[in-house]
Amino acid sequence: SQENKNFIHYNYVSLSLNGNFKDLLNFIQNLENLPIALKIDKIKLYNTQGLKLKLDLMFKFVNL
User: Which residue spans within the chain are E strands per DSSP?
Assistant: First the structure.
């Protein structure tokens, strides 16, 4: 039997983080600079109280 060599196996990650804007921005920038094929499916940033923010993030990546 032949294997389908075009099949891509994605790894999915869903995160919910609390923090300040600078820390969350640094996290997102570091994520974008990872040496993996990455696609962010959902990103949602909203204020919880005061200067604290909540980040909901879902992304998928493939191992190269």
Answer: 11-19, 37-49, 52-62
